[in-house]
Amino acid sequence: MVAGYANAAGVTWLDDAAEDADTVVCIASAGKWIVAACVAVLVRQGDLDPSLPVRTLLPELPDWAAPIRLHHLIHHTSGLPDRAVMDRGFAGEVSEWTNETVLGLLSTMPEPQAEPGTEFSYCTTGYVCLTELVERAGGRPIAEVAQQHLFTPLGMASTQFWKGPGLHPPTVTAHPPWHPGVPAPQTGDGVWSTARDMLRWAEAMQTGALGPRLTATLRQPGKLRDNTMIPYAWGASILPGGETPAYAHPGSWPGCQTYVITAPATGTAAVVIAYTDDSQKAETLGRKLAGVDQDPGSDPSPGRSS
């Protein structure tokens, strides 16, 4: 049995309507969990392989990216120069912040940040690459993969990938006035959802509602080249908790913080969506609701917006 909690209070920005558990927001990097699940679906179908050299399907990446494998992207061990790409994007050098934009910026980078598999470094651009790999290997948009294999089976009727042309889906009321001037790229940061839908997701990650094989894949931790284990599974941080760890991911978007956590050891799952720029507040509350005792800020995935 999974115990979940849903409550809401506050005011949204666009129309001063009351916020509730069905208010649609950009969940930012919390959506990386969903992107990783889409990859796992294609791995299960035989369309992708964790050991795939990513330049096989992404030939526009520089020559130095040849050693990068799909599993490096999943676990943030690819060595892609994420910060350099993100800084150029946010500096206003691009008019459209899309997957194509990110890949284009990557193609101009002279060198990697590190050799693949030698260090763990949270990398949003790696999840842009994963989204493109899903679409090129599967022959259809990642939104369709997620809808068929994830959202529909779990009853997540208010969740979707959004790539524009508007800044947000037409159902959105929670849109801060300082929202970035372009839609998020189609990585996890392009996912829009609600607290109620994401609670369904967190519960499924605990109960195995998407099938035992997919659930087991998503819980697999990454490791470095020297076999050092890292506290990051498929799209989710691993929080120590004895024999059965908890899994969580934050998401940070201007004016809105998301924290999704599932704790099999306590049989609880929680989702926090808070209108604030303080990500630690959302993380602290989420862990308390899930019964996970760990210092806030220790989650290895910062969940910054992209």
Automatic annotation (TrEMBL):
The keyword Hydrolase does not apply. Pfam families: Beta-lactamase. Residues 291-306 have a biased composition (Low complexity). Residues 285-306 are annotated as: Disordered. PANTHER family: BETA-LACTAMASE FAMILY PROTEIN (AFU_ORTHOLOGUE AFUA_5G07500), BETA-LACTAMASE-RELATED. Residues 18-281 form the Beta-lactamase-related domain. The lineage of its organism: Bacteria, Bacillati, Actinomycetota, Actinomycetes, Micromonosporales. It comes from the Bacteria. Gene3D superfamilies: DD-peptidase/beta-lactamase superfamily. This is Lipoprotein. Keywords: Lipoprotein. It comes from Paractinoplanes rishiriensis.
